[in-house]
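testing teh design pipeline on a random one, pls ignore if ur not involved
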């Protein structure tokens, strides 16, 4: 069995995580669990104000 360098192993893990993230995103879209960037920014702004307050 050939040894995999740490760098190659890390690269493979990053690709796996990226692909997993893409599939989670597609699943969210199919379930309608997405919001617009404008709405996200408004929600984050609201949370920041509440947490400072």
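output:
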């Amino acid at each position: 069995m050939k040894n995999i360098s740490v760098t190659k192993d890390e690269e493979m893990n990053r690709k796996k995580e990226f692909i997993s993230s893409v599939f989670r995103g597609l699943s969210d879209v199919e379930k309608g669990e997405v919001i617009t960037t404008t709405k996200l920014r408004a929600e984050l702004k609201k949370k920041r104000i509440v947490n400072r307050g």
